Amino acid sequence: MELVRLDFSTAVEGVMAFSTTRGQVDGRNAYSGVNLCDYVGDDALRVLDSRLTLAMQLGIDLDDLIMPRQTHSCRIAVIDEAFRSLDIDQQEGALEGVDALVTTLTGVVIGVNTADCVPIVLTDQQAGVIAVAHAGWRGTVGRIVEAVVKEMCLHGAQSHRIQAAMGPSICQNCFEVGDEVVEAFSHARFDMDEIMKRNPDTGKAHIDLRAANRAALMAAGVPAAGIVVSQHCSWCESDRFFSARRLGINSGRTLTGILRH
To answer: Mind listing the pLDDT tens digit for each residue in 28-62?
Structure first.
């Protein structure tokens, strides 16, 4: 399985962050060869096979690969020993409607699934805290990354020590939105000159989700120098990363995860 490594602005010993790629691509199959998301209509056995392959590649047990069932919310789940002690059904319930995870555990991969939205991994090496967030336009408007930073700080992190890296997502040129989305960002007090432009030919608005989340991270106290933005566009590189806008909702998802050894 090919993984795209996500590097932080400075090396973080003992922490690995990555995004998966689609694997073998068949134009007739929107799920391709690698999909770890189990609620997008893919065959359950194929999803399980992808998860097993990744777990083996990372040298972890399947139970150590933890992903929420995302709903474009701003809810955060803390993965701790209490969570790990729950049975499978209880864990699934705790992960329902969750779009970000925070943990201080080692040997556990926490990840989110995306197909155009922005996946963000965060770490405070000194505190031993890692996190991952799924930021679509709704989560971005809700400033999910600010909530994640606050949660990390409850577990010993300090915002000025946090580093963040964004995985593959749709670029501004490809992310055309309606005026209702523009209004939502404006009401959320984003600098529209910084994150929005209009196509001069169509008059349509284009939002820069990466810039919006970068601004939200900085508002939460994360230094600008500690934020790395991937230049991989899921739409432009839909042969390598999943794009729901290009492939449809019934397609695979790119997993972005982080692991602390």
So the answer is: 889 999 999 999 999 999 999 999 999 999 999 99
Q: Which pLDDT band, with edges at 50, 70 and 90, does 240 fall under?
A: very high
Cβ(137)–Cβ(211) below 8 Å: no
Is CATH 3.60.140.10 the classification given to domain 64-248?
yes
DSSP 38-77: SSSS--HHHHHHHHHHHHHHHT--GGGEE--B--S---EE
Dihedral angle computed from the Cα positions of residues 150, 151, 152 and 153, in that order, rounded to the nearest 10 degrees: 50
Question: What residue segments make up the domains of the chain, in order of their start?
Answer: 64-248
Name the nearest CA neighbour of 217 among 123, 138, 77. 123
CB 17 within 8 A of CB 6: yes
* CA distance from start to end of the chain: 20
Q: Provide the phi-psi class of 245: left if phi over 0, else alpha when psi is between -120 and 50, else beta.
A: alpha
Q: Between the CA of residue 108 and those of 16, 80, 102, what are the distances in Å?
A: 11, 10, 11
